[in-house]
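Action item from last week, closing it out:
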Amino acid sequence: MYNLLLTLLMIDSVLIIIAVLMQPAKQDDAMSALSGGGTDLFSHQKARGFEAFMQKATVVLGVIFFALALVLAYLSSH
């Protein structure tokens, strides 16, 4: 049981890395901070399409990661 959960944790870790790397980059560089205004207008838009899917997938994979980590910590202590 422990080895199965550990394998699932490693697979989940790789999937989290892939999900984070596939997310589109948000361009918040120094010039946009100094110039202000222009990018702030569109900065609070709701994510749609692929970006929304990747955000939800990352959150789900993160919750699974922490649940598996807690279960493995519990199993290793007993």
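Closing note: The chain has a mean pLDDT of 85.
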